[in-house]
Write a structure and sequence with these properties.
- With 480 residues, this protein is mostly helical.
- It has one domain: Ammonium transporter AmtB like domains (Ammonium transporter fold, Orthogonal Bundle).
- 66% of the residues lie in helices and 1% in strands.
- It is built from 19 helices and two strands.
- It has a two-stranded parallel sheet.
- The two termini are 37 Å apart.
- The C terminus is likely disordered.
Length: 480
């Protein structure tokens, strides 16, 4: 009966085929090429090297590596759930990007009558995909692929509406996605896992362990994320000095959090040894904590301090906060996304607000009104004409003061948390419905439930009911 209730033979193909038919129909009806991909708009005056492909594709490729290899390997840290972590990441990401193109494009369709697809659309869809994959970390090993696809199906519209509302009405600065990606993904995932709470898992699970090989694979994922994070933080910033600062600040923040992570890992360990879990996760904290201010003139030293602060908060969160949330608030955060994305996202948001309050023409010059476009004078203001003589690219803004812009940033943080948490809990209720192949407690963190696994899959755990090394097992086999 248990096997039938979790069989994917009908559930997964039925869901996938329905989703594919719907997506194809919507693509036929609404999606076309943008101007830079449309052959009909090319002529003898076209300079093909001006095509936006050459500007955006390097960022697209880098973020692809992060999504499919970085996240995939990082989530393969459980000893008996490597297939699930990596392959379900692959499945979920492929669907999410397809779906995000349509959902995010709806707002373009609303004004343009078509969803015009180009490489830039793919990048924004990848950011939406990153949101889903971060949330996935909270329920890793406790959900079926059917549940994960439905989670992505529901999360993307909530994210897209939140993103549109925050950018359209609150008009914030969030170049690295600290608010709209990391904070949203974190609290959405926590909302889902709150509803899917499993009391028996609070005491630990025999399969909730790592191995030498799985930890190495997970650290490889960390390295891919670490290397390409500057592209993630700078992809949508203004070209030129803003983008240049974004790359510099991200690298500095990551390097600072890495050094701090090694120091704290040894310091907080009872035996003074390093923890691979800290290396896999806490080293990445600096990439998040510089996100909200990554394109601003915060100074390299501030980026370094942010990396250290983010790492410290993340480390302490894993050690003390995650067990507390599971025990007292029924929030079983499997990958600790609240530490790596929630706490660091809040620090990043606070740093961004401080940077906005301190930003002045003395520091930025006239480009202040490019980096903070909503602080630019409104149309018809004589100061705007003066600024445009200095920098022709400056557009009319809303004339906000630094204090007003900071308040809008605060409003964005709290509204994002509320919408994400409520959306996550509602999604959790949907995922708790029967017939979605949800694993029982005993089958969590086990690839055998959903995969054909090789003969040596759990050899180390089950040989003669004892734990032994591969070499010891081979010796025993040779004796037989």
């Amino acid at each position: 009966m248990k096997r039938d209730s979790t069989s994917l033979r009908v559930r997964l193909p039925a869901l996938v085929f329905v989703l594919e038919v719907v997506i194809v129909a919507l693509y036929v009806l609404f999606v076309t090429y943008d101007d830079h991909a449309n052959a009909r708009l090319q002529n003898n005056q076209t300079n093909h090297m001006d095509n936006t492909l050459y500007r955006h594709y390097p960022f697209f490729a880098d973020i692809q590596v992060m999504i499919f290899i970085g996240f995939g390997c990082l989530l393969a840290f459980f000893r008996l759930y490597g297939f699930g972590g990596m392959v379900f990441n692959f499945l979920t990401a492929a669907f999410t990007i397809q779906w995000a193109i349509l959902v995010q494009g709806f707002f373009q369709f609303y004004t343009d009558g078509k969803i015009r697809l180009g490489v830039l659309n793919l990048i924004t869809a990848e950011f939406a995909c990153a949101v889903v994959l971060i949330s996935f970390g909270a329920v890793l090993g406790k959900t079926s692929p059917v549940q994960l696809l439905i989670m992505a199906l529901l999360e993307i519209p909530v994210f897209a509406v939140t993103e549109w509302a925050v950018l359209e009405y609150l008009k914030i600065n969030d170049a690295g996605g600290s608010i709209l990606i990391h904070i949203f993904a974190c609290y959405f995932g926590l909302g889902v896992t709150f509803v899917l709470y499993r009391p028996n898992l609070n005491k630990g699970h025999p399969k909730e362990v790592t191995s030498y090989q799985s930890d190495i694979l997970s650290v490889m994922g960390t390295l891919f994320l670490w290397i390409f994070w500057p592209s993630f933080n700078s992809a949508l910033t203004l070209r030129g000095d803003d983008q240049h600062r974004a790359v510099l600040h991200t690298f500095i923040g990551l390097s600072a959090s890495t050094l701090t992570a090694f120091a704290l890992s040894a310091l907080l360990s009872k035996n003074g040894k390093l923890s691979m879990a800290d290396v896999q996760n806490v080293t990445l904290a600096g990439g998040v904590t510089v996100g909200a201010s990554v394109d601003m003139m915060i100074s390299p030293a501030a980026a370094y301090v942010l990396g250290m602060l983010g790492c410290t908060a993340c480390m302490l969160g894993y050690k003390y906060l995650t067990p507390y949330l599971a025990k007292h608030l029924h929030i079983q955060d499997q990958c600790g996304i609240h530490n790596l994305h929630g706490l660091t996202g809040l620090i990043a948001s606070a740093a961004g607000i401080c940077a906005i309050l301190l930003a002045s023409e003395e520091t930025y010059g006239p480009s202040l009104y490019e980096t903070f476009s909503y602080r630019a004078p409104p149309e018809g203001d004589p100061h705007l004409e003066e600024l445009q003589r200095l920098i022709p690219g400056i557009q009319a803004g809303l004339g906000r003061s630094a204090q007003e812009q900071a308040l809008y940033q605060v409003a964005a943080v709290f509204s994002t948390i509320v919408v994400a948490a409520v959306g996550g809990m509602l999604t959790g209720f949907v995922l708790s419905l029967p017939y979605l192949a949800s694993p029982d407690d005993d089958s969590c963190f086990d690839d055998k439930l959903f995969f054909n696994v090789p003969p040596d899959f759990d050899f180390k755990l089950t040989y003669k009911n004892t734990t032994c090394t591969d070499e010891e097992a081979r010796v025993e086999l040779n004796k037989q």
